[in-house]
Amino acid sequence: MENATTGNKSDEGGNFLTFLVLKGGLFFLISYVVWIYVDSNYDLGPRLVSKNSSLRPYFLQKCLGLRSPFVPTVWAFNPHVQTVLSAVVCPATGPRFEREYLELKDGGLVALDWPTFGEKTVNNHRSVVIVVCGVVTTGNAVARVCHGAWRRGFRPVVFRQRGHNDVPLTTPRLQSFGDPSDFREALEYIRATNPGSNLTALSLSTGCGVLISYLGEYGSSTYLTAAVCISPIYCAENFYSSQDISGLYRWILLQKQKASLLSHVSCLQKVNALDGTSALRTESMGEFEEMVFSQTNGIRTMEDYWEQNEPTREIDEVAVPLLCISSKDDPLVPTESIPTELFLTYPHFFLALTEKGGHCGFFEGLQPESRAERLAFEFLRAGQRLNMTTHVNGNGMLV
C-alpha cells in the first residue's frame, strides 16, 4: 500500500514537470514566431536620421537605445494600445511632489513640481532635468518619467504652465502653443537656485512646442546642455487643422482645453475679445485655438498667431543637441508631417524613428517599459558628457 502511494506521487510529479516543459516550450515557440514575423516585416530600428557629422557616431556610441532593436511588447503592437499604455503605466511606488509657485514678471504664476522619493534630503549633486508636459500628459506618465530620471541619476522637476494642473490663473492670459517666455523665467530661477547643476530638458507630446520654440528663440543662451522631445508635434498649424487625426483624439484634446477654460472663466472674462460661450460650443481644435489662445494673447489673426507659435520657426538657431523620438504609426502625428529633411540639414538635430510605438508609447518587454524614456536619459547623459569634455563649432564638428 505504501509503495502504491509513492508511485502515485511520482506520477503526479512527472505530469507536473511535463506540463511545465510543454508550457515553456509553447511560450518560446510563440515568442519565436512573433520574432520571425517582426523581423521579416519591420525594420526593428530605431533608425537614426541626422546629418553626417562627428556628432552622429558619438551619440550612436553612447546611446545603446539607438543601436539595439526595438521590438514592442508582444500584446501591444497596435499604436492605440501603445498610446493608452503611455497614459496608464506608472511605477509601483510613485513619487510625491512638492510644489513651488513662481511669480512671473507679468504677475502670472507657473509651478515647479519637485518629486521626492522617500529621501528627506535633496541630492544637489544630481543633474537637473526639466520635464515639460503636454495638455493630455497624465499623472501616471509624469510619475513614470520622473521615476526613470531619478533611477538614472537625474533630479527631475516638472514645469507646470500657467492655468494648467491646478495652477491658479492670476492674469487673463493663457500660454500659447509655442511661447517659451514663461519657461525661460522658470529655467532662470532653477539655474539660480541650483548653482553648478547641469541642466537638461525633456518634453512630451504638445509640450514639445514650448521646448523646441525655446531652443530656437534663445539659441546658444538656453542654459541647457541637451534636450529630448518624445512624440513632438512638428507643425502645430497642421496638427490643429488636420482631419487625418482620429476624431476621438481630437475630441479628448478639445475637452481638456475646454475644461481648462471653464476652470478659469472668471479671470478670462476680463478679455473683451474672448467669446467663451462660442469657444465651449465649437467642435474644432483650430477654432478653439483662435477663439481662446489667440485672443487672450492679443494676436489678431491666426496667420500671425502661428507665425509666433510654430515650434520650428527659428530652428536654425538651435545650438544644443536635440533628440526627437517619433513613430511612423503615431495616431496623432502622421508620418508625412515628420520633417526628415530638417534632421539631415542641421547638425544638432537627431531623429530616432521607429515603425511602431504609438504616441509617447514605445513600450517593450513583457512588463512594459518605455524604450523612448530610457533612450531619452541616455541621450541627455551623453549630451552632458559632451558639454564637459569638448565644444561644438557651427558645423557640428568636435574640436
UniProtKB/TrEMBL annotation:
Q: Does the keyword Aminoacyl-tRNA synthetase apply?
A: no
GO MF annotations for this entry? monoacylglycerol lipase activity; short-chain carboxylesterase activity
Q: Where are the transmembrane segments?
A: 16-38
The keyword Transmembrane helix is annotated on this UniProt entry: yes
* Entries under InterPro entries matching the protein: AB_hydrolase_4_sf (IPR050960), AB_hydrolase_fold (IPR029058), ABHD4 (IPR012020), Hydrolase_4 (IPR022742)
Domain (Serine aminopeptidase S33): residue spans on this chain: 124-338
Positions annotated as active site in the UniProt record: 205 (charge relay system), 330 (charge relay system), 359 (charge relay system)
Pfam family for this entry, one: Hydrolase_4
Annotated keywords = Membrane, Transmembrane, Transmembrane helix
Tell me the superkingdom of the source: Eukaryota
- Similarity section: Belongs to the AB hydrolase superfamily. AB hydrolase 4 family.
Q: Which PANTHER family match?
A: ABHYDROLASE DOMAIN-CONTAINING PROTEIN, SERINE AMINOPEPTIDASE S33 DOMAIN-CONTAINING PROTEIN
> Know the name of this protein?
ABHD15 protein
Q: Name the species this protein comes from.
A: Branchiostoma lanceolatum
What lineage is on file?
Answer: Eukaryota, Metazoa, Chordata, Cephalochordata, Leptocardii
